[in-house]
Amino acid sequence: MRIFLNNRGFIITLTFLLITIFISLAYSKGRDALFLETFANLDDWEPLYFPKTERHSSYTIESNHSKTYLKAESSASASGIVSKTLFNVYEYPKATWRWKVENIYEKADPTSKTGDDYPIRIYIMFKYDPEKAEFLESLKYNTAKLIYGKYPPHNSLAYIWANRECKEKVITSMFTEKSKMIPLQMGDNNLNSWQMQDLNIIEDYKMAFGTEPPPIAGIGIMNDSDDTGEKSVSYLDFIEVYR
Question: How far apart are CA 209 and CA 62, in angstroms?
Fold first, then answer.
């Protein structure tokens, strides 16, 4: 019996390893990737907190045999994590990831500040360039730097898992016109099921803002529920930026 269990455990582990290798090769085949984040740890990420938000969401690494995932949890909370890696969107304009959520929010509503919560959203955040800023914009960003310790993004794309069908391809954030949200998953049809997403950052930026994007960008991840007061759990398998 011990030998059988040991062999069974070995077979399960080997199966997961082969699946992981196969997926990695399939995703990266024919690509020139800048990076492939598989969430073995969070060494290359830093927390993002918001003023006046006391409860923070949780971001941890969860393992299943040899496979690791990012687990994001919120309970009437909000915070995010931001990658330390910046990249040029004209050199690496494409991104792909695999995500999963356990539940959506009943009270979520992208047209209301009280409903601006999502179990997961992936941000492409475009770097602010003080040398290209006009006077009034420069004053605004310098004030923000005094509060946050760094410049906020020039603007951002937020890819969201919405709680219902959205007719709009692009939704402007109720908090700032500098953040445009793009629903990739909507409703509860794909709950608890891994979903692949592939996108072109430059094309999405043009669709959202009507102009060419700034060149330098970074990635952020957030699970928030501070506005609705609800809770959720979501997962990320990997994120890849490539061309």
Answer: 36
